[in-house]
Write a structure and sequence with these properties.
mainly alpha, Arc Repressor Mutant, subunit A, 2 strands
Amino acid sequence: MKLTSKGRYAVMALMDLAKFNSRNPVSLRDISLRQGISLDFLEQIFSKLKRNEIVQSIRGTQGGYILNKQPNEIKLANIFHAVDETVKTVQCKKESKKGCNGKATKCITHNLWDELETHINNFFENKSLEDLLTSNKENRIQ
């Protein structure tokens, strides 16, 4: 299983935005500096997040981005979908007649990896930005 930088950075940037978004828009430059993510890469990511209505942009000298929904309404699965990130643990397509290795049958561990993929995707469907913010606060207290 591989999660690309695009997916990881999208979650990091949105956590930063949720943390610092107290009614004022947050600039991508500020997120870039705090999180160590390239500004150009953030612009690409936020373009997709905006298109998928996860964030909205505010123009002007005090402009930037704000969340389009409350953090508890933004699931990690929505973020991954917005930036075209997919979590796959098997090479083959589930609906394919061909097997995992281009053979007529699926590999002997196919069902294991398929079940893992289901668990991972369910985890991301149930985990919100709010959960991450809360978890992050709890970890810092200890």
